[in-house]
TrEMBL record:
Record-linked InterPro entries: SPW_0924-like (IPR048001)
Protein name: SPW_0924 family protein
NCBIfam families: small_SPW0924
Length: 44
């Protein structure tokens, strides 16, 4: 019974954190216009 109670408290805390972050919203910012390099450029 203690394990079930602990799991319920943990789930409630996790959901409260998710809802709090959702209420705050995403931080303001911008993305870079430069593309990210996924491979090493070849040198001639």
């Amino acid at each position: 019974m203690r394990a079930l109670t602990a799991a319920a408290i943990g789930l409630a805390a996790a959901l409260a954190l998710v809802f709090a972050l959702t209420a705050v919203g995403a931080p303001d910012g911008h993305t870079s216009p430069e593309p990210l390099l996924t491979t090493v450029p070849e040198h001639p």
